[in-house]
Amino acid sequence: MRVLCIRIIAVAGIMAAAVVGPAVAAESVNPRTMTFAPMKYEIPKAERFVMANGMIVYLISDRELPLVNVTAHVGTGSIYEPAEKVGLAGLTAAVMRSGGIAGSTPELLDAELEFMASGVECTIGADLGNVSLTSLRKNFDRTLELFAGVMMTPAFDRGRFDLAVKMSLEGLRRQNDDPKGVAERELRKAIYAGHPLGRYPTPVTVKAITRDDLIAFHHKYYLPNNVILAVSGDIGRKELEEKLNAVLGGWSKGDPELPKGPWPEMVLKPEMLFIKKEIDQSVIRMGHRGITKDNPDLYAIRVMDFILGGNGFNSRLMSEIRTKEGLAYNVVSYFDVGRKFPGIFLAETETKSGSTAKAMGMMLQLMTGMTQGLVSEEELKLAKESMINSFVFGFTKTEMIVNQRARLEYYGYAPDYLEKYRDNVALVTRADVLRVAKQYLYPDKLIKVVVGNDAKFDKPLATFGTVRQIIP
After folding, report:
1. 47-248 to CATH, choices 3.40.50.1820, 3.90.320.10, 3.30.830.10, 3.40.50.11260
2. What is the per-residue pLDDT across 138-176, written as a single tens digit (0 to 9) for each?
3. Among the listed residues 292, 294, 297, the one whose alpha carbon sits nearest the alpha carbon of residue 431
């Protein structure tokens, strides 16, 4: 076998030499100097129609496989929970799916979906609820009926409700076992102080939730005129309309009464927060208020952030703190663009206890550097080309594309946002990057959070400001 491998390698080398030729210089095929024509990619359109009860539907037909996918985007979210019952949205989503539907017990619903190899799932995030369906084409009719049951008539079985509460409380009991989770939670609580986005469930708020609260929350927001449906797969428009009207057409409109605010403002106020934990590695998180989706400097901010901490091994944070200094395995930063409310800017890493202050100091120094001078032409070129060329990977499946279209309408983006994204990125200049760094990046106003063992730190955290210790 070893002799055979050697012969194969030798033959391959001879063939390669014959193709390339003996006199070809290495410089003539230098990958660093190669050029390529610009990538062109047209994003597929989706059919859009509105049902009589106000439900909006997007469809992209795809006959390649006998599968159908449906996702309902529902105008709800944990931001609409009462402050004394934080955790209500998550419990509602869990028991909508696990608690059975009218005419079917939880056990029967689970068994029937499993038998058909179908899936129905339900989640509620901060500002969006989702109910999703996956099905073989041959089982789509029945799966759609069960999906409609979860959307319209969930039974909220009392036993499953009690189980969901117990699981939630157990999760809360164990939440501080994860240092990263602790750091991220405390950072967001500090940035969004006084805002619904800064609230987290506690045993007190979860125990205050009743089964009737779940039913009321569902009735308030799960209405057809508060839903955008994204459908993809082996089905055409005419057939889809008929099936949707048969199953969901009788669902009556209502008034979801989405609160309009006013929401408390987030202020830029620097802090140094510390959570003591007997671990060998410090968890470091820094952040401050970010931007919303309609910010006119969105594209320049994305390019700036890509250069600072979003460009993998080529980012400034990674190349300096990991590659040159060896202080961390991973160090990143990014602007989490808010769609309905301001997002946050976040920089994060983990490092050994003895390099905590050094890593933090370097992160702050690199962020400050972004605000003091122009990025290089090479940095700008790499960032823009990477962002433009990687854009296509967000549309590798019809399911992804149709959901993108639905979310654009849900969050109020311009209809041509996706089509213009690459051109807008290409327009960003070095001057733009410096301008937005000065305007939106605040190294001196960061809220800094460290979870770790301060007895092993290289310098006290007081180096970075007055320390407020948190006991989670």
Report:
1. 3.30.830.10
2. 999 999 999 999 999 999 999 999 999 999 999 999 999
3. 297
Decide if 441 contacts 271 (C-beta within 8 A).
Answer: no
**CB contact burial 33-64 (16+ within 10 A = b; e otherwise):** eeeeeeeeeebeebeeeebebebbbbbbbbee
Starting at the earlier edge strand, list the strands of the sheet with 129-136: 47-50, 56-61, 227-233, 67-74, 129-136, 119-124
Task: Give the confidence band of 5 by pLDDT, cuts at 50, 70, 90.
Answer: very low
- Banded model confidence at residue 17, pLDDT cuts 50, 70, 90: very low
- For residue 169, how many C-alpha atoms fall within 13 Å in the half-sphere facing its CB? 13
The ranges of the chain annotated as CATH 3.30.830.10 are 47-248, 271-469
Domain 271-469: assigned CATH number: 3.30.830.10
Q: What's residue 8's pLDDT?
A: 38
Q: In the predicted model, is pLDDT for residue 373 greater than 90?
A: yes
pLDDT band at 261 (very low <50, low <70, confident <90, very high): low
Residues in the chain: 472
Residue 11 has pLDDT above 60, yes or no: no
Contact 175, 189 (CB under 8 A): no
Write down the residue that tokens 């001879």 correspond to: 14
Distance CA 301, CA 310 (A): 11
Burial class (CB in 10 A: 0-12, 13-18, 19+), 19: exposed
Q: 158-174 vs 211-221: helix axis angle to the nearest 10?
A: 100
